[in-house]
Specification:
3 copies of one chain form a homotrimer.
Chain A: E1 3-4, H1 13-25, E2 38-43, H2 49-60, E3 64-69, H3 70-73, E4 77-78, E5 91-92, H4 93-103, E6 106-110, H5 118-122, H6 125-134, E7 138-140, H7 148-161, E8 164-167, E9 172-175, E10 181-186, H8 196-210, E11 215-219, E12 235-237, H9 240-244, E13 249-253, H10 275-278, E14 285-287, H11 300-303, H12 310-315, H13 317-329
Parallel strand pairs in A: 1-7, 2-3, 2-6, 4-5, 6-7, 10-11, 10-13, 11-12, 13-14
Antiparallel strand pairs in A: 8-9
Helix pairs in contact in A: 1-7, 1-13, 2-13, 4-6, 7-8, 7-13
């Protein structure tokens, strides 16, 4: 693997999940694989889970780690070509990426969208230019429109939390009795958030659905449709109650509008996930990428119940990152 | 040990000091003890000595380290339960602590008091909730009311700087000729500082006094009494000159008032420690946890003299942290 | 080596370059040399290349690393003696440096000039006091007036990019056919920048010229003369076109005026390096320490051409740092 930006960079999601769960059983089985290999983790935005879990994964593989917090430890980068750099940006991404590529065998990059212009954010200019100029394999630690390490983790968590079996012959997971119903539901929030997590989760679940692993439903208010390229095959509704019926997994997430780009167009708190809302589900497991605002996005009663698997989900970030790093280090 | 928050978490202060001084002689004797163990160092406030010495101690034991600076690299955490998180806090301590617990075998946490309400700070809500939710052994890197790694270091420094012997049979230090007189004296400062260091030093010295290791005196101006639970058995006076007489160790520290909580009620610069003030002492060694404001808290003439052992004291932070980590790793 | 602050701290620039290029061929040949040795990297200012390359070099030698970002993770340091610290500085450099010396076998320090008073900056008070008080070997990661790791890298890059041979008998490089003409040229910028990089480059090139390795020319507008102690033997001109004639290497760099200290006295954009300007050169290689403002300092057409070796140059930072660390660790 030369790039981990989207589900499309994974040749087999089943094998990737298997590799991650193998690491969960035996974290140090490849502890020399990354010896004399350096990963550079470049943060243009805050990070807790991604920062810690990716470092932990790299350490489990014996890699060296360089962390660069561009905002506090560095300076602003320019991405536009053909403009004289007379403003606030001190370095062009062409040089910054190429230099970091000189110091590292693998790079991880986190850069949030500006949420001003859809076209600008969805061009993924920053990530794609960085990838092009650094000249090394690169892992998204969340880009403007996708968060693949999170979605890979989400799939791992669904697989390990439901009745799946792994077929060693065709190297595929399959649901032993029935496919789970996985529902991604929008929920309220006080701030305008990126669409990266829901886009990415949708993309991975659509792929999982295409491979017969899940049934996938998205529920959101009017005006909150995700960009269609990420939701092909999903059953989409604006009726949350209907969507939650018989759900096995409820993935809760706020996002700002894609249509009215970056705006909060719905403040209907009735979309918050509560115990009451879960009554129609199949005793569904509740998931969220975190951080989550309690009693805004999800009620505390849910987060503190056994139905919540958000901590297990966050813990799995390590194994997702480790499986991705392995594929990069072994050039699979 | 499952928690290092206070002197009460140490079963034997003598054995702890012995363990630390053994590491000072031979830093790498347990260099594989922490292999495949990760410590997460979580800073909600600035740190120099604690940051560097705890990392060094962990490296000496072969541990992996994850550092998380919440302010610059992360976001604000909520501690209150039952409130809708519509404000500035982006994540609840319940999730943040639990997630960090997923990534680490040991956690270290630094969080200063707000110095607004004594009850709030002295509830140690942040530390105790973090400890409860992370599910892993946790080390205080300075909490609202205590700084045990500092006080442990202080005891180590006193033991190694005076005529003590270690009795291998009862595993206790004892003063060979006489007990030293240890004086904690308040000193002026331009800012309102926490009581964590003096509370903690008092707590450790009271324990040392109870075990026959020192005679302990506290001197402070009117209105600067520490909370009594930390000073049981201490000889307390508002007469600094009297206190300093025949002192063997003078521990200098400013703190804001506990009675008039968080306020500076005394600006009497005559409490600054000078060479003159030390004349009545038994050629006392001068200690301070650092950072120290020169010629405000302690005169430069004292800090630059041979009587000052503040650098040796700071150096000992490594061995204190290493001894604590060992107890946690070996579940002593 | 006990200090790496200037070219004067290197006993032989040829042997130093040879050592660095040996590491470039075989980065891990001394991977146990730094075992149980800790380097502390202390940043008072932002850093990308220096931060990452020095860490990488230390890792290649098996060292432990402690990073301290004073601004975000710590507090302001006082350098003046004999003043009561009643202001914004929380710790004196005497204590801070000595304490860091307790935790580390080697220290690296980055501290920019204030660009207010030449005398203050050129006294190098911060670096020299830190070096004196820390009691350990210290490496400049860029000081107020010099940036020796950068200049060492620059010499490495020139040696490996031209027709040099290494004489094993006298342990000297020599130019096989002819000496290259190396031109340091001032270029425009929007901000007032330190003179550290040009001072340091000049100092190293003057030494290289004295050893018969290069011919060295400096071109700058009126009012931009560097302090003469750094340019002894250099051919200095205010005619950029004349300077560039037959140049083999063009080192481009902005600096603020030394004469009218810290000021921007020339805003003549015609000093920017373009393809046109390079036509009179001997197909010169173009160098810059980075970060570089495109189309302000150097035209994009040049940076994107094969004549630019700025990325190779930045990559060599690792080997320069590694060669310096080796000399310190082996006490050569």
């Amino acid at each position: 693997m030369k790039q981990f930006f989207s589900v499309k960079d994974i040749s087999s999601i089943s094998q990737a999940v298997k590799s991650a769960l193998d690491y969960k059983q035996n974290p140090y089985k490849d502890e020399n694989l990354g010896k004399h290999k350096t990963i550079g983790l470049i943060f243009l935005n805050p990070s807790l889970r991604t920062r810690m879990s990716t470092q932990k994964a790299a350490l489990n593989l014996g890699m060296d780690i360089l962390v660069m917090n561009m905002t506090s430890d560095g300076w602003a980068l320019e991405t536009k070509d053909g403009v004289a750099m007379t403003g606030n940006t001190a370095e062009h991404i062409r040089e910054a990426a190429a230099v970091m590529g000189e110091y590292c065998e693998v790079l991880g990059l986190r850069s949030f969208p500006k949420l001003k212009e859809a076209e600008e954010d969805y061009s993924e200019e920053f990530f794609s230019k960085f990838a092009a100029y650094c000249g090394k394999p690169i892992i998204s630690l969340e880009s403007a429109t996708l968060h693949p390490l999170q979605s890979f983790t989400d799939l791992i968590t669904i697989i390990e939390s439901f009745d799946y079996q792994y077929n060693d012959l065709n190297k595929q997971y399959f649901p032993f009795t029935k496919k789970p119903k996985v529902v991604l539901t929008w929920a309220p929030h006080t701030k305008a958030l990126p669409q990266a997590v829901p886009n990415s989760f949708a993309e991975w679940m659509c792929q999982a659905q295409a491979e017969g692993l899940v049934d996938f439903v998205i529920a959101h208010p009017e005006g909150y449709a995700l960009k269609t390229e990420f939701t092909i095959g999903a059953n989409i509704t604006t009726n949350q109650e209907e969507a939650l019926k018989n759900a096995d997994f409820v993935y809760v997430k706020n996002w700002s509008s894609y249509e009215d780009y970056g705006k909060i167009t719905c403040t209907d708190n009735s979309w918050m996930i509560t115990s009451d809302k879960l009554k129609g589900t199949n005793n569904a497991k509740v998931m969220h990428c975190l951080p989550v605002r309690r009693d805004v996005v999800i009620a505390s009663e849910v987060l503190d119940s056994k139905q919540s698997i958000v901590i297990q989900q966050a813990g799995n970030r390590v194994w997702a990152a480790q499986a991705v790093l392995k594929q990069i280090l072994t050039k699979e």
